[in-house]
Amino acid sequence: MADSENKSRFKRQKLSNEADQSNPYLAHMHPNGDSNGVGLDQSNGYGNGYASNSNGSAGGLSTFKRHASTAKMAKVAEDGPTNPFTGRQLSQKYFSILKTRRGLPVHAQRQEFLDMYQKSQILVFVGETGSGKTTQIPQFVAFDDLPQSQGKMVACTQPRRVAAMSVAQRVAQEMDVKLGEEVGYSIRFEDMTSPSTMLKYMTDGMLLREAMNDHDLKRYSTIILDEAHERTLATDILMGLLKGVVQRRPDLKLIIMSATLDAQKFQKYFMSAPLLAVPGRTHPVEIFYTAEPERDYVEAAMRTVLQIHGTEPEGDILLFLTGEEEIEDACRKINLEADELSREGAGPLKVYPLYGSLPPAQQQRIFDPAPPPYKPGGKPGRKCIVSTNIAETSLTIDGIVYVVDPGFSKQKVYNPRIRVESLLVSPISKASAQQRAGRAGRTRPGKCFRLYTEDAFKKELIEQSYPEILRSNLASTVLELKKLGVDDLVHFDLMDPPAPETLMRALEELNYLACLDDEGELTHLGTVASGFPLDPALAVMLISSPEFYCSNEILSLTALLSVPQVFVRPASARKRADEMKDLFAHQDGDHLTMLNVYHAFKSPAAQENPKQWCHDHFLSYRALQQADNVRLQLKRIMEREDIELVSTPFEDKKYYENIRRALVAGFFMQVAKKDNKTYTTVKDNQSVLLHPSTVLGQDSEWVLYNEFVLTNKNYIRTVTAVRPEWLLDIGQAYYDVDSFPKGEVKNGLIAAQRAMQRARDREERQKMMGGRGR
Amino acid sequence: MAEEEEDDYLSMSFGGPEAKPQETSLQRIARQKKEAAERSRVPSKGELREREKLARETALATAIDDSNKGAKMMAKMGFKGGALGKSDDARTQPIELQLKNDRGGIGMDSEKKRKVRQAAEAMEEGKKKQKVGMDEFRERSRLEREEKRGEGLWWGAMKVLEGLEEDGGEDAKVEDGPDEVGENVPKIKKGDKLKDVNLLYRPLLKHRLEKERDRKMRYDLNNSLSTRNNASDSEDDKEASFDKRTDQLEDEDTEIEEYEALSFANRLERVVTELRDKHQYCFWCKFRYTDAEMEGCPGLTEDEHG
Does this UniProt record's set of keywords contain Nucleus (chain A) (predicted)? Predict the structure, then answer.
């Protein structure tokens, strides 16, 4: 390895001694280094170029010196005719894409970028959406960092799986390579890379996982944290880690990329790293406020959309709403009203919903062009996209001229005091509002209609959205940090440290789950649990499931709990969907019902035509397929960790009971006791209701839940009936009865304790009697 | 429930020597009955909601205390209170939960609060004012009364004028306020045009037409609602001829606007003058004189008539 490296370096040096070739201004005369002159001959070029690559020195890059290349040199190499990385002939499509790429705003500043990148170990890069930073900067880096020459890679993180996949695909096209070879991606439960990969797009969570086994991230020569302004939990943790890694590894370069202007915060955090800003290609956006606060923001939003359609010149509309149900409902209503308007002479209006759980094919429809006028020369048609905040930063839709912003989004919130992590409709921040407005100015000057007063904008919206780390349960993160070798959790240098109580709660939970000991050190169970890309409760449940003779079933269940909802309940067919669900219902709860679904899905009858089967039974084919995939991945980890896969025979009357007991092993902290008409959560004493979607009747005294949901009521969702004896037995440390506050829960536990004692006594007596009898 | 009683029993027997006033058995039975009734009562939805909210708010307002296992672990890691991390301005309290239960837009809540506050302030203000102007109040109510009376007299005078102009006879009765609609269908005899009618009593006719139009609209609505389409032809004709006249209501009439902009007293004065000049009729004497000098009438105004 070291040998070949030396050789290639030597070769490069030798080539660069030839004056012509090292002169970047003359480089165009030697388009592809050592395969000189062959370039024009297409039939020959392929073979030659490829051969030269296998020699270890990539064609067009042979004159490049690491961290000393220029934009001009890169341009020449990009101009082909052979691919500088593979040596293969470049395709026609490549050149047409190249032309567009060169028009991107970042391209104008390539040299400036390189100068700063070469000089500094850390760089903060600010490029507004549409500047091309996500696709171009990693390529700029690849040409200068030459990771393949070091046997390393360039990593570029993305907050979302979809973005990592689609951007990798795009960049593979741009570089004219096959996805998964030189350019690949890696997301949870899917790795699309190979040994030849040099540019890897990945979710930030994935990079964090890798860091667990490789604390210094030695596989990478440059790490790019993209969309850092979104401040996801994983990005925040990565920044904290990398701050230490860059000190241990002077050869590692780090680029923080952000789309918004609060970049000074990143600069300050990273020891005053230099900053480079590239303006986006945006047009001015005129902002309108309402005169009065709106009584109903959804109504107001629909009214505004229709008004724009009726009165404003050509241009598409983007409306931000908060969730699937609200969006689907609004789409339906706008469609109806638009038909009415078109009878009165307005042009056609196509309405598309957009939200995360929408199938990809339907998501793609938002890129369809606006409909043509009803008749030639008639009023222009337009499309209206009704979206969650995924259209705020991550997705770029051309043609949007009007933005309607009611000022709300669904945001995750976590409160350690009542231990609830939930999605709540909350006001957005000023920064988000600006981002939303900016979406109107992508194609030409646009308009943004804010459905609140200017005064409310100034007084009621916070400056920046709270980073995810302040809005999340950190149990999983703390376990990861422990595995990452961070011992001083209290002083770990985070950009925005969470409230101390959040850490307290996380440590407590991990201690009860026996993942951390009383000193806060990782236990064996904790180490194994951290190896699973799962919440600690799920991981512990899975690891301990062989003790309950049902690891096969718990594995399936874990997979099912890790994917989106498997039950589909369209507004148009609620009753039928519920009837279908009843076919799978298990009287003891939703977990077992889900398991029944999965088993039915895997039956030969269903597998004959699984898509149709799912459709007929109101189940999400995508979710079940995904669950299948997740199950496979988890199974591999289990095999690696030597966790047995066992089942209780289905005929055994303990089949379901064993599964319920195994659930308790992970979720004993998420239990509620019946109290009159409602339920009360143990320890926190929160009054909750069973979510209406449950199959469970109202008569179960004790229930275990997967989720505590806050809406206008407190709900627990995905619930299964359990027995108090199991809680006392399996969750012993947590169910220390003396520590419970006085009340219904404590009384119930005491009663169970006594019943258990009586049973033991009886057994004892019987044994003694039996002994005497014999 | 059984456990609870046992609990009590236990706690009493181990409760130590302090002498509490003993509860008599009757008292105890009464208390237990009351408590049992309270427990078995099914709480209403509102109560449940209230209870849920209370429990949530109590828990949210209570910080996790030092006896918590996690807190102890943190103490071992060297946590001495304050914030986490290395920056000084990090948060020490969790982000507050804000539940949104309606679809009110941004700023709606504070707008509501502002309105409530404003209303409260306005009430305060009102109270103050009342104290100030008892006299002012008397004066104002006197004016209001006069205004009302003036209006009534004006309508009456117009009717008299109408009567005189239409047939020269004196069939007018003085009534306060405009006609009740219905029985006497609008009388516009000289041509069909509202504008041709003497300005001074034109409002009277206009008012009748308006009432008639409203009645007709109601009638049409009723008809369309009941889907009975058996209205007689003759009635249709009547409606049709009437339509022509009600249409005039849409026409602009600046004269009448100007006239109606005058105060009631002024309008009354104009009608009274007209009655005298044209018809030698004194509105106050309720008498039509035969001579132009109107011998015997004390004067133009009401006051002169005593």
Answer: yes
